[in-house]
Amino acid sequence: MRYPHGVVTTVPVGVTPVRAEPARWRSISVRDLSIGLVIVVAYLATARTGFRVAFVAEQVTTVWAPTGLAIASLLIVGLRLWPAIWLAAFIVNAGTSAPFWTAGIMATGNTLEALIAAWVLAFYIGHNFLHALFPQRSQEEAFAKRSFTLTPGTSAPAYKLTPVDGGYIARGKSSWNSGSAHGDWFMSGGMVENAEKPEVLLFMTPAKDVQVLGNWDVQAMRATSSGDVAINGAFVPHHHCVPAVDIVEGRSPGAKLHSNPLYSMPMLPLIQSEVLPCVVGAYQGAVREFHKLTRHRVSLHTSEKTSEKQAAQIRRQVCCSEKGFGVAIDCRDVFVASCNRANINRKYGFS
């Protein structure tokens, strides 16, 4: 079967392929505006309830449901709806005795706390999926107390793993561990020492064996707790380790445990699909800035508007077309092909 833009894959009879919709240039939709309005109304309603148990000052309360509403909205619908959170928070704070400038500052803080929480929770959710790719015993230990874990970490091979009976001794330090302040487990990558050939493992370590260094003081992002962590000689049993290549290629122990084809997908296309919105958003922002720049710009020598020049119009048209989204479309099609391949492998028992 041939997909748009030249991606070719073969699908056996009886397997339904996952089709991708063509990329489209779009602005804020009516649906987003409607959802944003609902969020504002719900935020105002829950804030009114919170104010009824206020103490010290009318905007200081022990119960503040709008925070949970804001986090859930950004997680479920998307971070793009942060203006609705800010607007609702501003209306709420402006309705108190606080001056407008104070209301604006408080609304910004309310919005940032929801954005940061959604950012960290998104990592936690993604890493819960990675837990499901590890051996069954590892999953049973990780999910022993509840149906989810708070697992920060990175996959870069920053640690040295020394083989010992039953597992490895891990030593090293890693960066960019979002959510490390509240982690239950930590996911890390390491190189096996004295191996016949280079071997990279992903491994899970309980929080008690990890030292959070607390060196994350980035302005407006300190609450993400994305700093460094260190492991100094902790024992990591074999069942908490998986060769990185098996996860990358969709051959992890979890792929054999779970029937859902999602767990048999190669990891790189899945990661690409996670960052794809950021790539497309940055691209769209660049196109918008180019349009703003050329809209009112006038040539110094001819007094001709830049936006009326043929070259500028061609560039903008190419950027706004599907051809201009080449990288994003390629990533999307690789993801679609991987979904089909995982579905086929699962149904027909291919490796």
Strand-helix topology:
Blueprint: H1 30-51, H2 65-76, H3 82-94, H4 100-131, H5 136-142, E1 153-164, E2 167-174, E3 185-192, E4 200-206, E5 211-212, E6 229-237, E7 241-243, H6 244-248, H7 253-257, H8 267-295, H9 310-320, H10 326-348
Parallel strand pairs: 1-3
Antiparallel strand pairs: 1-2, 2-6, 3-4, 4-7, 5-6
Helix pairs in contact: 1-2, 1-3, 2-4, 3-4, 8-9, 8-10
Characteristics:
351 residues, alpha+beta, Butyryl-CoA Dehydrogenase, subunit A, domain 2, 3 domains, 10 helices, 45% helix, disordered N terminus
Q: Indicate the percent of residues in helices.
A: 40-55%
- Helix- and strand-based class? alpha+beta
Question: What's the arrangement of strands in the largest beta sheet?
Answer: 5-6-2-1-3-4-7
Share in β-strands: 5-15%
- Calculate Rg over CA atoms: 25 Å
What does this structure look like?
With 351 residues, this protein is of the alpha+beta class. The chain folds into 3 domains: 4-18 and 266-348; 30-127, no CATH class; 147-244, Butyryl-CoA Dehydrogenase, subunit A, domain 2, CATH 2.40.110.10. The chain has helices at residues 30-51, 65-76, 82-94, 100-131, 136-142, 244-248, 253-257, 267-295, 310-320, 326-348; strands spanning 153-164, 167-174, 185-192, 200-206, 211-212, 229-237, 241-243. A 7-stranded mixed beta sheet has the order 5-6-2-1-3-4-7. Strand 3 (185-192) and strand 4 form a beta hairpin. Helix 1 (30-51) packs antiparallel against helix 2, helix 2 (65-76) crosses helix 4 (100-131) and helix 8 (267-295) runs antiparallel to helix 9. The protein starts with 29 loop residues before the first helix and ends with a helix. The model is unreliable at 1-26 (pLDDT under 50).
